[in-house]
Amino acid sequence: MPDLLTIDASQRQDVGTSTARRLRRNQDQVPGVVYGGGEVPVHFTIDYRRIAKVVEDEAFFSQVLSLTLGGRSEQVVLRELQRHPATEKVVHVDFLRVREDQELQVSIPFHFLNEEECVGVRLNGGMISHNLTEAQVSCLPRDLPEFVEIDLEHLDIGDAVHLSDIELPPGVSFVVLAQGDGRDDQIVNVHMPRGMSLLDEEEEELVETEEDEEESPEEPEEDSE
After folding, report:
1. What is d(CA 131, CA 82) in angstroms, rounded to the nearest whole number?
2. Bridge pairing between strands 90-97 and 29-36
3. What is the pLDDT of residues 134-191, one digit of tens each?
């Protein structure tokens, strides 16, 4: 597991909508709560400048984090992040405590490699469609990967990558596949641009017709005498 992203928070006693609104407006603080792990929920605040910075890091959304609260550090994962609908400013955050001996379920991102070198794009004029950019995995905290890499270089027109095609690290599994509900979701595929296939067929037929007309000799006129 990589070095943990650390977040400093301050415990708060006052809770409620009006209190949270006052913290955001007057003190530029973001309220939140941490729960789970067999312990009581604890309400806290985080400096807005700090939370605004960490949300720019991909690891904040998919990795185990270190939450420092009341002089104590504990491992958590993000459970919910609320933003203002107009400004996108973070207004509330929830964390879930994790335990080393208990599996957790977290959505991790896909990193797509060699898109410009993809055979279907580079040689055959195809397009790449990303159907999934992340997927939920189940594993122990120590086994949680930062991301999953998918190499697109050898994909041609009509090729696709599904969840079952991905080789995950030991101890890690995709939640939907582990549940056995038959959902082998497609992650990415390569296809021709919309309408391009039909256009190519029509142009090919036109060229063949013109070639046939050029190759067919004109029949000689019959002698009337």
Report:
1. 24
2. parallel
3. 999 999 999 999 999 999 999 999 999 999 999 999 999 999 998 876 789 999 999 9
